[in-house]
Amino acid sequence: MAIISQRFEELRKSNTCALIPFITAGDPDLETTAKALKILDKNGASFIELGVPYSDPLADGPVIQAAATRALAKGTKLDNVLQMLKTLTPELQAPIILFTYYNPILNLGVKEFLAKVAEVGVKGLVVPDLPLEEAENLIQSAQEFGIELTLLVAPTSSKDRISAIAKYSQGFIYLVSVTGVTGVRSGLQNRVKDILDDLRGVTDKAIGIGFGISSGEHAAQAKEWGADAVIVGSALVKRLANGTPEEGLKAVEELTKELKSAISKEQLSVAGK
Questions:
Q1: Is 60 a catalytic residue?
Q2: What residues form the catalytic site here (predicted)?
Q3: In a domain, 273, yes or no
């Protein structure tokens, strides 16, 4: 069994909801990214989603778009990101899931891209602009390198499409909580619970909820609805960008602790009985 799937099986056995934080590589610089990854790992991340900066990030909201723009302006490229990961992944407990658009994969070549990211310890992929109808080649090729490609289910997805995505998604299923791009929201849409229930009816794969979760309250709501994981991006990226790198890292640590506490309260209560 591949690493992402295996880790979710272990988490389920202990009734643990996974925390999957997201940050953008290279914002404000790769040295700070490396420090942030260690902080996320130390403070309860089950997996870490790392965004490769891209010039046309259609699925990303203004916070992550701005982070990608800053990272690109600093000269951050895929090779720089992978070089940083090569030295860092042996120190991390949380598997790295790389978030990247499809064009960089296509330009490099699918097999060459997968070989490069596998070599530095990447265990999962999220490619938001890759539709299900074109994903089969990447899914199969990724499995050859021990990498799992996770597909996204949108709030507008039909039941037939939900079933098809659930069948082919690897590692877990990424349930998008809002229609549109990533970003901080005031709350989660009730429609998300309905889609989660639909997914439970067609698959036993792990399901993570993302896009719009920005607080412990949101994370606890997603867990209460039955999510196997909560994915938090814009709120962390925003905090990391505020003030000095040291101040940003401290803010990231505080939010990570808040999120982890919010989804662990029930487990801690049971353990204390």
A1: yes
A2: 49 (proton acceptor), 60 (proton acceptor)
A3: no
Domain span at residue 29 reads 3-261
* Helix, coil or strand: residue 19: strand
What pLDDT score does 70 carry?
Answer: 95
Whether 15 is in a domain gets the answer: yes
From residue 169, how far is each of 4, 8, 131, 147, 204 by CA, in Å?
12, 14, 11, 12, 12
Q: Are 155 and 191 in contact (CB under 8 A)?
A: yes
Model pTM score? 0.92
Q: What's the rounded Cα separation, in Å, for the pair 263 and 98?
A: 23
Strands (DSSP E) found in the chain? 18-24, 48-51, 96-99, 122-126, 148-150, 152-153, 173-176, 207-210, 229-232
Query: For the domain that residue 56 is a member of, what is the CATH number?
Result: 3.20.20.70
- Number of domains forming the structure of the chain: 1
Q: How large is the C-alpha radius of gyration of the chain? A: 17
pLDDT of the residue at 62: 87
Looking at the domain assignment, is residue 252 inside a domain? yes
Annotated active-site residue 217? The verdict is no
Residue 27, Cα to own-chain centre: how many angstroms? 17
Residue 272 in any domain: the answer is no
Catalytic residue among 10, 31, 41, 49: 49
pLDDT at 183: 40
C-beta separation of 120 from 89 below 8 A: yes
Give me the catalytic one of 60, 148, 198, 228.
60
What stretches in the chain show pLDDT beneath 70? 1, 57, 59, 178-190, 265-273
Condensed to tens digits (0 to 9), the pLDDT of residues 30-39 reads 999 999 999 9
